[in-house]
Design goal:
Strand order of the largest sheet: 7-8-9-6-5-4-3-2-1-10-11-12
Structural class: alpha/beta
Bound molecules: S-adenosylmethionine
Shape: globular
Strand content: 5-15%
Number of strands: 12
Helix content: 25-40%
């Protein structure tokens, strides 16, 4: 697939802090069919030019270079990935690469009911659906779209077609859904899904972010223990962003505490945008253009060695640097301004896939 022979052993390529290159988030489109206030507060955006978008073949080739260097987890994301036509074709192409042992998808679920069977048949391993509220009117106020029922239909379809290990990702926002944490966990039990609460992050696109809207990991645990009693943290040796917890009845859930307790030290993730820009951190201002060398006919070896040397020089610890601004009282001041986002859509969360 990459055009390079598979070696017996996958080399481990580590960055300057010893973090391996393991996990790639592959954004297939920057378009989205929701306008969540924490991610896409505007109605109109500057979209990536169509001719710059990678074809499925280009995505598979570039992904192949990453897997030669140790990537084995690939997550399809966006924008809303299901807006890209024929996604099962991409899934099949990627899964021809035996180095990909974990192919996952993150979606808002709206188009999932109609596509879940095709994804399952294509061999997709795991699905995560973003679900911030169980209340249709809240969903409408948050997303400015009236499609909550479609999301729930999508979630039902995941188990029906045979997927195991469904995850539901909830951005926990103080004053918005902090009264729904228990309801979401109970809903997760009913649909056989593990719920993961994400702290509201001050990433590009989150122009309405403020610290007082962040429901911290500690606050979430306190709210949940008031209802469930003793909550135990599960000790795991994992680079996954979620810390996992156990309720007295055996139910598990996760918290992704990116804002108050950044986990940069174990971050093995990087992101490829739909137009082939590679970002080493969710907060990085600049990316590395991989589309141009590919389209200019650079050899597989040349592109692989570019990726390798860039990763070896990686020093990014964006979430920790954001956190450090707090002490200076600058965290809210230093959000990326809308004008700057308009000039470079790559800075947006919806372009680099969350
Ligand atoms: N459209 C897909 C979805 O909804 O899952 C994939 C892309 S979306 C950008 C990926 C994830 O990022 C979603 O779970 C979304 O809720 C999350 N997200 C977006 N903005 C965020 C923010 N400011 N803080 C925390 N999570 C955010």
């Amino acid at each position: 697939m990459s055009g390079m022979p598979l070696t017996q052993e996958t080399p481990r390529v580590n960055d300057t802090f010893g973090r391996p290159l393991r996990s790639l988030r592959l954004s297939v489109t920057d378009r989205c069919n929701l306008r969540c206030k924490y991610c896409m507060p505007e109605e109109e955006y500057t979209w990536l030019p169509r001719e710059t978008l990678l074809s499925f073949e280009e995505m598979s080739i570039l992904t192949g270079f990453f897997t030669e260097l140790g990537v084995d987890k690939v997550r399809l994301t966006g924008g809303e990935p299901l807006l890209r036509k024929d996604l099962p074709t991409l899934m099949r192409m990627l899964l021809l690469n035996p180095r990909i042992t974990n192919l996952a998808l993150t979606t808002n679920g709206i188009l999932l009911a109609e596509q879940a069977q095709a994804f399952y048949d294509a061999g997709l391993h795991r699905v995560t659906v973003s679900l911030d509220t169980l209340r249709p009117e809240r969903f409408k106020a948050l997303t400015r779209r009236d499609t909550h029922a479609k999301v729930l239909e999508g979630i039902d379809a995941v188990a029906r077609v045979g997927f195991k290990g469904l995850k539901l990702d909830t951005v926990a926002i103080r004053g918005f859904n902090d009264d729904e944490l228990v309801d979401l966990i109970e809903y997760g039990k009913r649909v056989n899904a593990e719920v993961r609460f994400i702290e509201y992050m001050d990433v590009g696109g989150a122009t309405n972010w403020s610290m007082d809207k962040v429901l911290s990991r500690a606050a979430m645990l306190q709210l949940l223990s008031q209802h469930y009693g003793r909550i135990e943290q599960i000790v795991e040796d994992s680079s996954a962003p979620a810390q996992r917890f156990l309720l007295p009845d055996g139910t598990t859930f996760g918290i992704i505490p990116s804002t108050t307790t950044p986990f940069c030290s174990t971050c093995d993730r990087s992101r490829l945008t739909a137009d082939g820009m590679w970002y080493l951190c969710l907060y990085a201002k600049d990316g590395i253009d991989l589309r141009q060398p590919l389209r200019d006919g650079a050899s597989p070896e040349a592109i692989t060695s570019l990726i390798k040397s860039v990763w070896q020089g990686r020093r990014d610890r964006g979430a920790e640097e954001r956190k450090a601004l707090e002490r200076l009282g600058l965290r809210e001041e230093k959000l990326i301004e809308i004008e700057r986002l308009r000039q470079d859509p790559h800075l947006e969360m919806h372009a680099r896939g969350g």
